[in-house]
Design a protein that fits this description.
This protein has 368 residues and is an alpha/beta fold. Helix content is 37%, strand content 23%. The protein has 2 domains: 248 residues, Rossmann fold (3-Layer(aba) Sandwich), CATH 3.40.50.300; 111 residues, Alpha-Beta Plaits (2-Layer Sandwich), CATH 3.30.70. The longest helix is centred in the last third of the chain and has 20 residues. The chain is elongated and about 80 Å long. The structure holds adenosine-5'-diphosphate and magnesium ion. The site of magnesium ion has 3 residues, from helix 2.
Length: 368
């Protein structure tokens, strides 16, 4: 399975990162593995295996993969909570987290899955407590905290005096988010912040991430999630399977990887199916054509553009921080080429539909 992280371009970028802080990458990992040794040292578990990835600043990245695939381990290596095995290298905002976690902590906001502060503290007191921890200056502190509460829609006037038990699940999660933002971090790391929330609240949390990024465009978000539909809200997806990266790129590329290209459904008049088959067979972008006995006028195509099929192309796209549109356009471009070929072959009204699997379907194909 090709992954952009294993491309020559990727390793070239990774190599250049070894020699100092990069202004454009928030996170750079080169050949990072993590082996857990149990207390008795009787057994070891390789939670991450040879992970190399470069995450540009200003991106919202969803970290996905089946339970136990290494999402939390990945995030813990970035915060310096765990050290990686010898041999690889990690730079977070240009700093090695294992050697200087304190320096880094001032620039990272960590959103835990569960609310960790005392349940005896009101919303307002909790934020003040966190502000003291981070030495947020007294001057302007009140305004800053009120602004943060406003940004997560927990207005001080309405919610400041409440205790955690007086908040809904979504409100409590937004309070945890507010606490992670008190020191205005450059990198926000959230481990399943939407777990157990209803779809509307989940969407709101992602809207907050987007607002906060748009407010400061260099701010980077790494968000682990079990909810695959949430992939649509992010700029990049990093998918793990059993400790290895199986995909890193814009969301639609995940669908393309699962299908092995783009899936097109072509429908012509029944008697013309054979003619359509021979015409489309000559198109270089067509990887596979299948027919169905039940629907004689329908052809199922797997297509891909030559230029975007290489993992190197994908990595370049990531390096430029390009948005997911590029990949959607590639699917559309394939559709247009197929349509043009059919018209050129004398078909007057062929139907060509680009079919994307759902993220859930793609996920189950990729984790098989
Ligand atoms: P995820 O967050 O994707 O569910 P984790 O990173 O928590 O995955 O776990 C990856 C693997 O490492 C799992 O097999 C898990 O059992 C193991 N693991 C995680 N933390 C520890 C630990 N502190 N000690 C030993 N094994 C661990
Ligand atoms: Mg986890």
């Amino acid at each position: 399975m090709t992954s952009p992280v294993n491309s020559p371009t990727a390793s070239r970028i990774a190599h250049s990162q070894h020699h100092g802080a990069s202004p454009e990458y928030a996170v750079v990992l080169a050949h990072v593995s993590k082996t857990y040794v149990t207390a008795s040292e009787a057994t070891t578990r390789r939670a991450l295996i040879d992970v190399s990835v470069q995450i540009p600043k200003g991106q919202i990245v969803a970290i996905i993969g089946p339970s136990g695939c290494g999402k939390t381990t990945f995030l813990r290596l970035l915060t310096g909570e765990h050290a990686p095995d010898a041999g690889g290298s990690i730079a977070v905002l240009g700093v090695n987290p294992a050697s200087s976690p304190a320096t880094l902590r001032a620039h990272i906001g960590y959103v835990p899955q569960h609310y960790l502060l005392s349940r005896q503290l009101t919303v307002w007191d909790a934020l003040h407590f966190v502000a003291s921890l981070y030495d947020v200056p007294y001057r302007g502190r009140q305004e800053r905290l009120e602004g943060i509460l406003h940004s997560v829609r927990l207005e001080r006037r309405e919610h400041g005096h409440k205790l955690p038990r007086q908040l809904s699940g979504g409100q409590l999660r937004r309070l945890a988010l507010a606490c992670a933002l008190v020191h205005e971090p450059d990198l926000v790391i959230a481990d399943e912040p939407t777990a157990g929330l209803d779809p509307v609240t989940r969407k709101e949390i992602w809207d907050h991430f987007r607002d906060m990024r748009d407010h400061r465009p260099s701010r980077t978000f790494l968000v682990a999630t079990q909810h695959l539909d949430e992939v649509e809200h992010c700029d990049l997806v990093l998918m793990f399977k059993a400790g290895r990266v199986v995909y890193y790129g814009p969301p639609p590329g995940l669908l393309r990887l699962a299908v092995g290209g783009y899936a097109l459904v072509v429908e012509v008049e029944r008697p013309d199916a054979v003619k359509a088959f021979s015409a489309l067979q000559t198109l270089p972008i067509v990887r596979d054509i299948r027919t169905s006995a039940r629907f004689p006028g329908v052809l199922y195509l797997t297509v891909d553009l030559e230029s975007t099929s290489s993992s190197e192309g994908n990595q370049t796209m990531i390096a430029n921080g390009a948005q997911s549109r590029t990949t959607i356009d590639a699917g559309e471009a394939c559709r247009a080429l197929v349509l043009a070929k059919l018209k050129e072959s004398g078909f007057t009204n062929p139907q060509v539909v680009l079919q994307a699997p759902s993220y859930d379907e793609a996920f189950s194909i990729l984790t098989k």
